[in-house]
Amino acid sequence: MLRWARGPRDRQENLAEFVATETGALRAEAALDVDRAVDSLRYYAGLVGKVDGRVLSGVPGHFGHTAREPYGVVGGVAARNSALSTFARQAAPALAAGNGFVLHAHAEAPLGPILMAHLAETAGINALAVFTGPELLAAHLAGHRSVGMLAYAGPVDTGRKVIRASADPIVPLTLNLASVNSAFVLPSADLAAAVPSVLHSRFSCAGQNWFGVSHVYVHASLYEEFVTRAVALARRITVGPALDPGALMGPLPSEAACERLAAAVAQGVAGGAEVRTGGRRVPGLEGGGYYEPTVVTGAAPANPLRAEPVAGPVLTVSPYTDTDAVAAEANATRSGGIAQVWGRDAGAVKAMADRLDVGTVWINTHDALSPEIATTAWRESGHGTAGGPDALDACTRTKMIMWDVTPLAGRVPAFTKIATRTDSEGSRNA
Questions:
Q1: Which residues is 105 bridged to in the sheet?
Q2: How many angstroms separate the CA atoms of 220 and 204, rounded?
Q3: CA Rg, the chain, in Å?
Q4: Who's near 428: CB < 8 A, 6+ residues apart?
Q5: What's the pLDDT tens digit per position in 31-41?
Q6: Whole-angstrom distance, CA of residue 306 vs CA of residue 317
Q7: Among candidates 91, 387, 35, which has minimal Cα distance to 211?
Q8: pLDDT tens across 386-404, in order?
Q9: Residue 89 belongs to what H/E stretch?
């Protein structure tokens, strides 16, 4: 695994340019994806041989312990964006736990993962494979009886198909589904830090990062200033080709993706939302999936720009006054991925974090990703853990082993008193 990590590390520039060309991510964003993949491989390489069980008591005269055993084969399904780091976050703990790993790479961005698999093979790892094709193959992988467990990252609709397919062989899953992630800007927040961080969270990778926020709840006392700052900053974001060193945001992956986003914005405006900036294709770059960074206000909770995950650089903003009410509104979305809370009043920040029905809360940060730190999704954003030592546990199954080591005097099984020598020696007809 360490040799595998050296492969993408030594080829970072070429690999980043390759990924940027394939996906539309900026070269710097693709390079960060390579770095995160390398970090995951190195981290889990350090956990090889460190899969531990527990020693248990509770039954008098008995000794119990658990053993963590590999499933055999772990399957993975990666989304189009952040494909290399997702691949590594899924494959590395599976391999470290003693499993083989097979990945279904997204059909629109398969070449990066295939190249990563080639580097693994070159490094001497022969228990890993990658294939690609339509989404129905992701469900096929989840329902294949040779797969012991599966890690899925991607859109909700495909995730539901994966869940249904896994029900037949009863394959355990970890799910990281596309989510309506929210940020909460409290009255004590520092807007000089919050505004650029929230916008970077949303507009990096053209609004397709699974951990980016798509809606911001801003306390009424800061709302107008937040919107003014956000609109001004969004207008200064230069959109251009992935390899353009002057670009701060790249294109969507395809013309079809751009058309879907334009239709979603039009539907949102028809539902009462107001576009404060953006909301159109980039002039002079038509036909290449280029869409302007877009800030929207006035979108009600049921508006399609807020109710469902939107794949693209669209950020919706709304004011709030009541903390309990805004937490309840956010929880009603049924999304439970990542939330951001911005504020300098520690008590208020903690109270808001406690109210949110999400698996992961980031406080005064927009990018707390590290292989050592787990992220957890709840409710319709998925379940299970990615990252950290918990991911190693997810790639193993628990075997409980109990020993009767010191039977108590006079405490014998009920049938011992009626057993004969013949019984103890075994049946003559056995």
A1: 132
A2: 27
A3: 25
A4: 422
A5: 999 999 999 99
A6: 10
A7: 387
A8: 888 889 999 999 999 988 8
A9: helix 83-96
